[in-house]
Design brief:
There is one protein chain. The chain is α/β, with parallel strands linked by helices. Helix content is 53%, strand content 15%. It is built from 8 helices and 5 strands. It has a 5-stranded parallel beta sheet. Helix 1 crosses helix 8 and helix 2 crosses helix 4. The longest helix is centred in the C-terminal third of the chain and has 16 residues. Bound molecules: shikimate-3-phosphate.
Length: 165
């Protein structure tokens, strides 16, 4: 098994901020699969969703996961839907510890409400979408080795918890 730390979890659970702080604490490199997808497609995520569709986005995502899972000494933050394909989960599990960050729907809503870069939440009732997607994805997020609820924790506290695993 690889020595990477792979952060999965819903949008707004803190994967990016925690991932960057964790990488610094460990002396690891930080990578975000969404950044890789943007590079590969040479388009923003909203552009990929609107011009190519979600299915194509998921193909880019699997390609990005395949690439990063070959590395060592990395903290890898993934998009909220990265757990939805068995193939992605198998790759991530081989590459290191898969840690799921979680938060309540209210906290997630609060963290993402002003954001325009998450196409799945650019809908009339984002709170309803958050609740619906969380319910649909629960079983997939449960595939992670560890789950940490970040709702009431600071970034430093989450990093500390991960370092204690
Ligand atoms: C998605 C989450 C996003 C991004 C895309 C789809 C999802 O990443 O990959 O908008 O399906 O939950 P973040 O979780 O980093 O926001």
């Amino acid at each position: 098994m690889g020595n990477n730390i792979i952060l999965v979890g819903f949008m707004g659970t803190g994967k990016t901020v925690v991932g960057k702080a964790l990488a610094e604490a460990l002396g690891f490199q930080y990578l975000d699969t969404d950044d890789l997808i943007v590079e590969m497609a040479d388009k923003t995520i909203p552009e990929i969703f609107s011009q190519e569709g979600e299915a194509q986005f998921r193909d880019y995502e699997t390609e990005a996961i395949r690439k990063v899972c070959k590395l060592r000494d990395h903290v890898i933050a993934t998009g909220g839907g990265a757990v939805l394909r068995d193939e992605n989960v198998a790759l991530m599990k081989k590459a290191g510890k898969m840690i799921c960050l979680a938060a309540t729907p209210e906290i997630i809503y609060d963290r993402v409400k002003t954001d325009t870069y998450r196409p799945l939440l650019q809908v009339g009732d984002p709170m309803a979408s958050i609740k619906e997607l969380l319910a649909l994805r629960k079983a997939f997020y449960d595939l992670a080795n560890v789950r940490i609820d970040t709702s009431k924790l600071s970034i430093a506290q989450v990093v500390h918890k991960i370092l204690m695993i």
